[in-house]
Amino acid sequence: MENELNKTYNPSEVEDELYEFWSNNGFFEAKIDKNKKPFTIVMPPPNITGKLHMGHALDETLQDTIIRFKRMQGFSTLWIPGTDHASIATEAKIVQKMREEGISKEEIGREEFLKRAWQWKKEYGRNIVNQIKKLGASCDWSRERFTMDEGCTKAVRKFFVKLYEEGLIYKGERMINWCPKCKTSISDSEVTFEEKDGNFYHLKYQVVGEKNEFITVATTRPETLFGDTAVAVNPNDDRYKNFIGKKVIVPIINREVLVIADDYVDMEMGTGALKITPAHDPNDFEVGNRHNLAIINVMNDDATMNEKAGKYCGLDRFEARKKVIEELRELDLLGEIKELKHNVGTCYRCSNIVEPKISKQWFVKMESLAKPAIECVKNSKVKFVPERFSKIYFHWMENIKDWCISRQLWWGHRIPVWYCKDCGEVMASCDDVAKCESCGSENVYQDEDTLDTWFSSGLWPFSTLGWPEKTPELDYFYPTNVLVTGYDIIFFWVAKMIFSSMKIMEKPPFENILIHGLVRDSLGRKMSKSLGNGIDPLEIIKEYGADALRFSLLLGISPGNDIRFFNEKVEASRNFANKIWNAARFVHMNIDKEKIKPNLPSNLNFIDKWILSRFNKVAKEVTENMEKFELGIAAQKIYDFIWDEFCDWYIEFSKISGKKEILLWVMINSLKLLHPFMPFVTEKIWLSFVNSEKSIMISQYPISSESLIDENSEKSVTILMSVIKSIRNLRKEMNVPYGKKTTIYIQTEDRMLIDIFEKSRDIICKLAYAKNIEIANNFELSKSVSAVNDFVKIYISVDELVDVKSEILRLNKELEVTEKQFSQAMARLNNENFVSKAPQKVIEGARESAEKLKNKISKLKESIEELSK
Questions:
Q1: Which of these, 259, 373, 685, 752, has the minimum number of CB atoms within 10 Å of its CB?
Q2: pTM value?
Q3: Residue 38: closest CA among 629, 377, 474
Q4: Main-chain dihedrals φ then ψ at residue 373, nearest 5 degrees
């Protein structure tokens, strides 16, 4: 690999080459090393149908930054990658492709369909993996897993059979969520509630034997009246007490049903009377069970009306609603229609409105599984970052219902249950069953349904390490250390991993759950196809490089909060990469690598001590931030140090005063500090300095040394920089030509300040464009311009460079602003409420600021007076 640095940094020329260098040398591969502590992350497996989007980019960047940091800290790191078979999404893709070919899955049968599915996975399933690699993800690809690979399949069957044998899995007829588009059941956690406009329709049900007596019910779903088997009222509702036990006639179909009393009915809601349709509403189902009501299903699996709807058979449910309303209006059985907004359940995959449906499905009993999963978060064995997300977790787990795990799909883990046609035996088995274990008959068949995708991904933290086998990896790398995921799947996936792990491993699957938000567009909107505001991360990488995308996503991010994506932020991050590149080229041009080594020599001057002190402070703070998963704060601190202190100041200082060994040392260690965030550019520069095949990613992350922290040198350089900035600003305000050098007069009586300026004469002359420096406690200058900062007063002779009238005007404006600030500061200090309640440190800080403003006013007035003579 060519290690020399070109004049400009071109990410497209180096990123693929560097990734290949890392992969070929095994730098990503995890090893069991009993002398090291393990640090493990399991990648939330993206769907094989997926294409890299900004959510993935953020998720993988966070994980990679953490794992690179821990690798450099000396941990034995394992980041397990993998993909999810995504039953619903993948089957939908394959069915769509077949539809375009003019065939259906029913025509070709299950076996042929699954051949096509595996072929589809082979052709397209690697796309998302290759895209993740473009980000620089340092996963151990030798351990890549798939939720339907042989090991995961073995784990799924073992887990299912264990729960079944303990009576925690059962098959029963229950009210489930049915997606008419995906044509499968979905669990409660897969239902997304969306606020939609709707109506309350008031329908009149005639009381049997009473020609002019009606009970008016309120419903949002008149099309389900074909399945009505009762009308319910509250037993304490005086309006309806006399009707309890009587019968009413269901409109259109003229079915006679009982008026029943049930506490479930809210007297304040609607009319206080409800039509009860046990087959099409979960609450009605419960009421029906209590009163032994008939269950009449009036819809097909695709949400069209069935034969029970009579002449409306075959109509879509919403079209049938319109027709039913028209007929009720004609029959004079329609009362008022009230508009309302209500939450409607939709499928999280296709956004189609979910249909409640009575169906025979497989369920997991959740009560006993939920308890230890709740307890391990309550006792902080698992910590949410930020902690507030534990409330969502507790709300879900403490109100959890039995989990519907069966899906009416072909792609996925087929339920490992077999039935004997001869004796009716039901057998759950880890291995395929060829004959009945009860009667010996070979006339057996497997359950047709597949398992919920989350059933297999819930085992991900330990199935990927070899369970159900007792592997060395499982013993060493489990439990994992951190899960990085979005807040939108806390109940989809996080909860399932925790209760599955507590059941099988008797330990939580991870110590920390780092929650991140959504990546939104620059206006704060969610990225979506309908808005056309989606941004392709691969296009960003192509234009700016992976490092720029990564750093732009991390800079300023805070756990749990959404972030806005700005192109300007990516451009700024690319500029940062270029800044580092140019700094590295400067270092190369100014050192002899054969003679100069990145060592720390003795006899350092205060400039070198300053940069070493600042670096060690930043290294300490960044490490602390990283340990607390404050990656956004850490990134900002590294950016500020490298851009401002190292590139803008120290490199300039080093041209005049400073040891080359320190220049090289800070350059190399700054690369280490930044590497987890921007791996490509730091690696390329690192290799240009070290001339070895050892990657920066296996070098040691900087450890702060207290002995190198020097407060005096920091104070001295802060003062020096303040003076140089003041002179530069003064020259800029006076429009002094760049090449025009002047004498600088620095007025101070402070011996310490005088010492700083005396030993910095060359630096000030060079960086402040001065031909000479005069330092004294007072100057008698006939006419001059001045600058006042927190430390000294600076003069430049007017005769050399300025328009006197313009300078007086400028000083008066600055005086006006400063007097206003001083007035505000004093008002605050004279406020008894502030003085009595504020911490002493805050009050002292306010007094110190006021004193500085007062001194500045005095100095400004002196300057104005001098110029006005």
A1: 752
A2: 0.82
A3: 474
A4: -70, -35
